[in-house]
Design a protein that fits this description.
This protein has about 325 residues and is mainly α. The chain is built from twelve helices and four strands; from the N terminus they run H-H-H-E-H-H-E-H-H-H-H-H-E-H-E-H. It has a two-stranded antiparallel ribbon. About 5% of the residues have low confidence.
């Protein structure tokens, strides 16, 4: 058990380092070719902070542990919305802009609804016994991903953002390629160790793969989003904090879970309707606060409420394992 814990921590460290190296390298490469900062934020940075979830979920699917794959995505999205945005809002209130309210936030809600639909209407089932997210469901999520990517590049030249030309050559091409290659290697190696040790720990302490995925694995894999968003909020860049969370949430479902389900159908026997209720409710809550809340802002009080909701959900999961 001790060895599994040490491997779990070591694998997580490698995944986080790999995500950081790959994100830095990819961002430098994008700036070198003068890709819009908006596109970088919605794709490269969001994907970079979601790489731990990608590696862990894909690895879990390939190793026959689909419960960890789905639990990781659900848990990460709930963690991103409730705990990360809640923490960022405690530091400084998060102001929504009009474009985000009409574009990214509806996409975030759409992704949660799409996942529930491909899961066979889990909102209306007591449990997922006998239900699956099939390969066709995974392919449908990937189709939604294509729509999101098409949308992202359609706004790339809308004049709202320009490339950071001053930093375009901050990292040389050689260092850029080393960061990308080293990041990929650390992600793959660390992800394998992380999934294996998490599965062993789940078996040893009697927790289901679903609970392990939604709690321990999702929190660990969401640390890049937490670091980026909290640091952005501390510096007053609340748009980055919100954009990072929204982009990661959308990619977690459309890309990561779409790929995982396409590789291996995901059995839902370890999941309950409440997991999907919570996922959709958090997306709806964020939408309504942004659209109809006072001054379209997540206040410190609302941020504290988000955090309390996450703590309550985690306690529920563990007590009802």
């Amino acid at each position: 058990m001790i060895i599994s814990i040490l491997l779990f921590i070591g694998g997580l460290i490698l995944v986080l380092l790999g995500a950081n190296w790959l994100t830095d390298g990819a961002s430098a490469l994008a700036r070198r070719f003068k890709i819009s900062e908006l596109v970088i934020g919605l794709t490269i940075v969001a994907l970079g902070t979601s790489l731990p979830e990608l590696v862990i979920s894909m690895g879990a699917a390939l190793k026959g542990s689909p419960g960890i794959a789905l639990g990781n995505v659900i848990g990460s999205n709930v963690f991103n919305t409730l705990l990360i945005l809640g923490t960022a809002a405690l530091i400084t209130p998060i102001k929504f802009n009009s474009k985000m309210l009409s574009r990214e936030i509806p996409f975030n809600l759409l992704s949660a609804i799409a996942l529930t639909l491909v899961a066979g209407g889990m909102l209306f089932a007591e449990s997922g016994e006998g239900q699956y997210i099939t390969r066709n469901g995974g392919l449908l999520l990937l189709c939604f991903l294509a729509v999101f990517i098409r949308y992202t590049f359609s706004i790339a030249n809308d004049g709202s953002n320009t490339a950071d030309e001053e930093n375009a050559s901050a990292m040389g091409m050689g260092k850029t390629l080393i960061c990308i290659a080293g990041g990929l290697a650390a992600l793959i190696f660390g992800g394998n160790i992380f999934v294996d040790s998490a599965t062993e720990m789940a078996t040893a302490i009697g927790l289901s793969e679903a609970v392990i995925g939604i709690t321990i694995v999702s929190v660990g894999s969401s640390l890049p989003e937490l670091a980026v968003s909290v640091n952005a909020a501390r510096k007053g860049n609340v748009g980055i904090a919100l954009g990072n969370v929204l982009g990661s949430n959308i990619l977690n479902i459309f890309f990561i879970l779409g790929c995982a389900a396409t590789i291996c159908p995901i059995e839902l026997s370890e999941f309950k309707y409440v997991d999907f209720y919570v996922l959709i409710t958090t997306a709806i809550l964020l939408y309504f606060i942004g659209k109809f809340g006072g001054k379209t802002t997540i206040t410190r009080i609302e941020g504290a409420f988000f955090i309390c909701c996450y703590i309550a959900y985690t306690i529920y999961l563990i007590s009802n394992n």
